[in-house]
Here is the input.
Amino acid sequence: MCLKTSERPASHICVCFPGDLLMKPILEAAGKDISHWFNPKTKDIQTHIDPLTGCLKYYTPQGRFVHIPPQLPRSDWANDFGRPWWKDPLYEVGILSAKTRRIRIINTLTSQEQTLEVCAEESMWEILRRYLPYNAHAASYTWKYEGVNLDMDKNLQQNHILDEDEEFYQLSMDADSYTPAILLYFNDDLTEL
Here is the structure.
């Protein structure tokens, strides 16, 4: 999860808690990756056994923030806020990619080559959309890897374009020395630009 910084949602949370000291960790993390604050399985804040109480508590080494209960029970802590902000999709920018990959896209008609960094989870259609600034007619091409037509609904891995970065690392080779090349073959389909 990332926090929005310049759009309405970030200012919205600040307006809801003006001057609140519990906003400090959130403001310090604005615009940054805060996925380490969350348990990947539960999508809730990380937890730990509190050494003082022996109870399961939220783990907030950056400091307690809005909607996190205090360490000990207190009568002045209002817990009637409903859904905590981290479970509200209003504050979510998007999901961070598990891995990014570099690919080369070569237009066989013009011999132009572009290197793109793409998310491993992206389908070929999403990669095509990223490539459109370089070739507005990219959808009129057949996309191939090692002579095989690519399924545009699948991602790189599902199209058997393997991520060999780990292998290169183990062999002490520069992963940038081999970047998979996707070849585009023009189809004379008379589509409009």
Observations:
- Residues 38 and 45 are 4 Å apart (CA to CA).
